[in-house]
């Protein structure tokens, strides 16, 4: 462990932690924050649920934090970082990025504090987080006339709006309305995940495997995103047949894309196959959601967990590894800790689905899933925290174009 925590730079010089480095790009603070909260919130939910006695109690808090405090936070960190590549302008760095992190942290703390005042402070902080991130993305993308990505700030705003609607439904105590709005947020996040993953997975694969040529599926990706947007509105407007058809279309396209990307070629490259597994699980989850919209699956927990745990979370553990290594100037290679974290997240997802079955082993499966999940994200933090708080390994300073942020 000692060797892993000693970050050495070329020439043998050990870099010191720096606030400037930590707040250089969005992925650094937000990947760490999101992954820490993934571990902490599950530990609290599974092993100490009696502590969840604030305005958002129990399962309401758990569902909210998994989607908006973990999954959406990682997505925002990725988009803020990717936008600097797409536009040549870093959307947030330094103090403005620190303020974004402070808003996120205030929301996490205050949602655990009983009382109406704490709840409203948390809600306002969280909504400001999404608005701040969307505005920063919008300024960078529109300012650079990067028309291909004009919709991304709107999708981040959509996540924030779905969050606000969920919180209002929670205050009203309307479970049916709350579930509908949770699904809307989940589907909005699915649209973002489909859009990003469909672009980056083929790109990563062709760069990593010599001679591999696979289709980008630009046209099918456009149909897929269109279907996802229709599914979001169908869910909000409560039109189940339209929602189900759109979800089924998006899911089938995702599975078709994965098969066309020659998954067998990635079997010896963990940085790739983990992304393939997550994307395939997301596609399967959309089909499960379509079945639920049609009333063929009664329990709402099934689509939520297939999409959220088997889909998003598996994609996330792959993305926070691959993109972090790339932006930290380190070799695009996994070590044993990283591969073990991949296996543990997949195991946690499988056990969580087993726990949904009406069997005697469901409680044991839930606790085993939580243990695997905790260990996976603790391993990630242990491996990457020392890197995230230090300058790039290759000592490359962000280009001047990337420093013209804010």
Fill in the keyword field for this structure.
single chain, 406 residues, mainly alpha, 2 domains, 14 helices
Number of domains: 2
Outline the biggest β-sheet. none
Number of strands: 0
Oligomer: single chain
The share of residues in helices is: over 70%
Q: Give me the Rg, rounded.
A: 20 Å
- Structural classification: mainly alpha
Characterize the overall form. Answer: globular
Which residues form runs of ≥5 with pLDDT under 50?
1-13, 396-406
Order of helices and strands: HHHHHHHHHHHHHH
Mean pLDDT, to the nearest integer, reads: 92
Strand-residue proportion: under 5%
Tally the helices: what do you get?
A: 14
What is the straight-line distance between the termini?
A: 38 Å
Structure overview:
With 406 residues, the protein is an all-alpha fold. The chain is built from 14 helices and no strands. 73% of the residues lie in helices and 0% in strands. Helix 4 runs parallel beside helix 12 (301-327), helix 5 (95-110) runs antiparallel to helix 6 (116-143) and helix 9 packs antiparallel against helix 10 (240-260). 47% of the residues are buried.
Secondary-structure blueprint of this entry?
Elements: H1 2-5, H2 19-22, H3 27-47, H4 58-87, H5 95-110, H6 116-143, H7 151-172, H8 175-208, H9 218-236, H10 240-260, H11 270-293, H12 301-327, H13 336-354, H14 362-388
Question: Nutshell version of this structure?
Answer:
By secondary structure, this protein is mainly alpha-helical. The chain contains 14 helices and no strands.
């Amino acid at each position: 462990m000692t060797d892993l925590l000693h970050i050495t730079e070329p020439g043998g010089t050990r870099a010191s932690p720096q606030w400037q480095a930590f707040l250089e790009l969005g992925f650094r603070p937000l990947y760490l924050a999101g992954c820490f909260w993934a571990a902490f919130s599950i530990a609290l939910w599974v092993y100490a649920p009696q502590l969840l006695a604030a305005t958002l109690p129990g399962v309401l808090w758990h569902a909210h934090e998994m989607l908006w405090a973990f999954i959406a936070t990682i997505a925002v960190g990725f988009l803020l970082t990717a936008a600097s590549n797409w536009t040549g302008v870093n959307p947030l760095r330094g103090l403005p990025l620190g303020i974004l992190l402070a808003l996120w942290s205030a929301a996490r703390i205050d949602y655990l504090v009983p009382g109406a005042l704490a709840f409203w402070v948390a809600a306002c902080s969280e909504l400001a987080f999404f608005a701040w991130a969307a505005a920063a993305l919008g300024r960078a993308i529109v300012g650079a006339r990067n028309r291909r990505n004009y919709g991304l700030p709107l999708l981040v705003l959509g996540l924030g709006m779905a969050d606000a609607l969920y919180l209002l439904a929670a205050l009203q105590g309307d479970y049916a309305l709350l579930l509908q709005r949770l699904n809307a947020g989940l589907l909005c996040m699915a649209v973002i995940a489909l859009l990003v993953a469909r672009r980056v997975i083929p790109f990563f694969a062709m760069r990593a495997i010599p001679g591999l040529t696979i289709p980008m599926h630009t046209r099918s990706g456009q149909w897929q995103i269109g279907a996802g947007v229709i599914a979001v509105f169908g869910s909000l407007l409560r039109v189940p047949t339209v929602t189900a058809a759109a979800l089924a279309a998006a899911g089938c396209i995702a599975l078709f894309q994965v098969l066309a990307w020659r998954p067998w070629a990635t079997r010896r490259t963990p940085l790739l196959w983990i992304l393939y597994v997550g994307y395939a699980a997301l596609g399967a989850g959309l089909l499960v959601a379509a079945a639920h919209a049609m009333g063929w699956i009664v329990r709402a927990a099934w689509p939520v967990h297939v999409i959220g745990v088997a889909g998003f979370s598996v994609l996330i553990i792959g993305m926070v590894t691959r993109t972090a290594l790339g932006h930290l100037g380190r070799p695009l290679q996994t070590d044993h800790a990283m591969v073990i974290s991949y296996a543990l997240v997949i195991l946690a997802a499988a056990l969580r689905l087993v726990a949904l079955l009406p069997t005697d082993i469901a409680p044991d499966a839930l606790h085993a899933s939580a243990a695997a999940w905790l260990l996976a994200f603790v391993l990630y933090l242990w491996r990457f925290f020392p890197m995230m708080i230090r300058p790039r390994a290759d000592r490359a300073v962000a280009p001047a174009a990337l420093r013209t942020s804010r």
